[in-house]
Task: structure prediction
Amino acid sequence: MKSVAFLTLGCKVNSYETNGMERLFHDSGYELRDFAQKADVYVINTCTVTNMADRKSRQMLHKAKKMNPEAVIVAVGCYVQAAKEEVEKDESIDLIIGNNQKNKIVKMVEDYLSNQTEVTCIEEMKDFNEFEEIAIEDAGDKTRAYIKIQDGCNQFCSYCIIPFVRGRIRSRNEEDIINEVTKLVEKGYKEVVLTGIHLSSYGVDMQGESDFVKRKGEPLAKLIQKVNDIKGIKRIRLGSLEPRIISEDFVKVLASIDKLCPHFHLSLQSGCDETLTRMNRKYSSSEYLEKCDILRKHFMLPAITTDIIVGFPSETDEEFEQTKDFITKVGFSDVHIFKYSMRKGTKAAQMEEQIPDPVKTARSNQLIATGKQLKEEYEQQFIGSEQWVLFEEKVTLLDDEDGQEKEYWIGHNERYIKIACVVKNKDENKHNCLEKVLLTKKREDGIILSTCIFTD
Ligand code: SF4
Result:
């Protein structure tokens, strides 16, 4: 029996696609191995969102070759799509597959094994308008299953390489999504996360419209309602949303969906209007704030999280301060900070006045501290309240008070707050159990302690 090992870099869409490719190999009789083990085939599902992601992709390809020089090394995905020439020159790689042939990977590996000639399969992504179906049947030994419902992006933010390597918007057939979620729920998954490259555009390509604003999330809202109707599902989360999808009508529908978590990742990128314009983001900071107000009107204390890029070309100290103030004004429950990374082929890469790395690092550190404080303030409001937690894993932590090691079950509530419950009985297995707990106090490491009240 031949064996295959995978390594995935990048986003949840990549992880989903890896799950799909693993299933294809498994169905063809391959044994799946851990990446650290010796295997006949290594597949690296690469990422190109930053320079660091490119470097890591190259490193992992070389590492695989070193682990077994006889193995077939397959480079797949975004880095490959963006850096075709560089990848073709790399002698450690045998098979190169871009972003739209992943569901043919087994045949390509088999062909390579028969012919032993290096193969490159990279096509122009902009020419594709069909969603490539690569269904999953399992999401590993986890409680949360990520479901890819959409691919591609038409937005062309000036810093972003993704529309070039992922192509235009392609939405997944609703029936395939519902079938997949139904099977996963039957397998025991209680929580799903609907995800995509530009999730807010879900469905707009199906009726020949290219501007998602015209339909204000209508197809996405309908899909969430259908997922909500699946028997046995307990929680639905959404991947990153673009602020312009938020409208009174859209959020009213969302608020009527009982399994939908009050947790919204609304990507901001900058709190300064001039910077947003240079980024080609099509909203202003005040519009963004209105969207948060709509969410807060229809959901009680929703967790609103975001991404920020610091050090975008010509970002001044004053512009950075505007972003910092704006983050505090919005009162996010969590903020993910990224240092701007120049991507060849994008508009921002040609902009003058690139910001030196030490300045980016200093700004990033400041925003990390601001984000930490906001998270603290947000979570503190829930101490003393009862919350439902979906437990994920057992961990050992040092007790804040007596310094002794103790075992805890850790999980998240609907608002994605991390909550721990001390293990009382060593034989109990709370993995994938939904329990109602009382939040008692916040530990110094940020984890909130709780006591169990009720098990579903
Ligand atoms: S919306 Fe902008 S940042 Fe997001 S994938 Fe599309 S181009 Fe990139």
